[in-house]
Amino acid sequence: MTCRVLSASHYLQPVRDGDALPPLDQALKQICREHFRRTDRFIKLALLGSARCAAGHGLKTDCGIYLGTGFGPVASNVAAQEEMLRDAQLPKPFDFVNTLGVSAGFHVAKNLGLTSQNLCISRRGASLMAVLTAAFTDMELGLVGQALVGVVEEVTLPLDEHRLRRGLAADTAVAEGSHWLLLEAGGDAGRTLHLQRFWEFPVLEAELGSRRRAADRLCLARSMEEAATGKLQRRFPDTYSGDLAGAFHDNLEAAWVAEFAAGGSPGSLFLADGGHKRGFSLLHLGA
Amino acid sequence: MREAYIRGVGLSCALGMDAEQCVSAMLRGGAGPTVLRLDGFAEPPMLQYYRIPDGAELFDARRFENLLPPVVRAAVTQAGLTADEISALPVFVGSSCFTVGLAESGYRMALAQRSPSAMPMPVCDYDYPARLVQQALGCEGETWAYNTACTASANALLAALRMLQIGAYRHALVVGAELANRTTLAGFSGLQVLADVARPFDAERKGLVLGEGIGAVLLSVEPGPAEAMRLIGGACNCDTYSVPTANPDGRSTAAALRQALAEVHLSPEEIRGIKAHGTSSTTGDQAEAAGMHQVFTTVPPVSVLKPYVGHTLGACGVNELVLYAGALARGLLPATPGFETPDPGLRIHPLRQSVSAPDGRYLLSHFGFGGSNTVLILEKPA
Q: Is A70:A122 a contact under the CB 8 Å cutoff?
């Protein structure tokens, strides 16, 4: 299925050892319709990215929210566990409520006046493809006319604990991110997004071989099966490494796609993911 | 629109350790919750809780890996899938706890040992339940983790149905997983929304009684050898009235009901019964009741299953579907224990005794934190 990309927003901010987390409140004040109290960083990141993406676009009433995340609102979970297990107190109500991933989507919906679907979906490091697949499925079935698709990953301090939770080496540079696409079903005007699913790897490889032009960027998702990644790297030696800010979060693929779409880059982008038992997906962000 | 056949089910909840046993126990009236003292707090909360009768220590971090495999094996075995079909099986999980209990256990142990490296949330992995399922079944299909609070596994069911409808899969395993953990129990205690008895839609209702449960449903586009219930459609929407509850005026719950009916081209008069969400909270039941009255001229027979198993939060969509479909398969609409005094402000009267269930379509409602409203439609074939 093909849909139109109405807009994109891309926030990727490295957090270095010794740094405080980058301030968000001023940016939120400029872009959000109201001031949301008792929100955590995960919610703020979702609000910032979604509001920037939707700015200037009249959203349809049947616009669904599809929020993907590998790790979700960790800071609120940390706060709740410290309150309970270290301090022997009941968790503060807003810390507890904010432990739920769906709370971020609630605030996004409230800020943008949306009342359609509000889904929070995770597939660890392949969460972008999960939320895009869900959004495309609903658009194909005519259940939503537009989809606001985002991926959010937060950083928690101290960074050594953040790295431990994610199984990262002690010197890994880390980043937080909020990457969003506003999609509309149907039409082929402007920038388009096309998602195909294949059960056989050779079909994916052939599709890429026939459709990709030399100038097109080819990204291989880090969650793609190793053997398939190896074969595609041998066939297409110029695959994109995606080192956008020299820093890591769990769903950088979302950053690759949103940055490309938001930046108005010429040419098009392909993103391949999957495995021989789970099937393969090929995303094509057209010019 | 193409329907999905419920080819296999599994369930562990307060009613028992397998689905048939649970349905039988429910139709006999259930056993009720037990008292739980939540130690480790300056003022330990006492609460009623519906726990799985597995004999293990309630907060034992290994319970997930002990309890999940038998439930999903039961669903897949009943479905009679081939080895090839199992190996590519996609797994949809809905939960609101995921690895929270596991993380609490690790942090608590480190604090008890006075470890200088004690770290809150040492584990954080939404994929953990799906990975356990894959290990138990030997499957390697796609995984989906839905984190939409109390509607999580209902949304997982809806998502799986939609993927089957567009032809992405032939079969899908949907799991609802919620096990006891301190964050949930202490968090709800702190919100002051818990009660000693679940009394859905009752004038004397005081709040929720929580429970735990793991359920599994194997959906397929192929009917299989046995007569199967069908999941035929549903809808979900978002109500931004407040994070903890839908608007008590019922507008958004009514919209979800109407959307679900419209998706499968049904009129309200064609619905034979409703499995209501019925948390027994003041405003939650108000929002749900108002929504039903806006859609139905005469509200069909209502059953609420939380008085049997507690509110199993993210797992309630799958768990209550297994119980309700099991009762329908036996030709019965289940009664609602705890409902005694009708609330004139609600005008919803859940069944006090089980009654005969005709063939036809049934609604299953789920409403959760984050403004998430999800309605499923089930068909009992003639």
A: yes
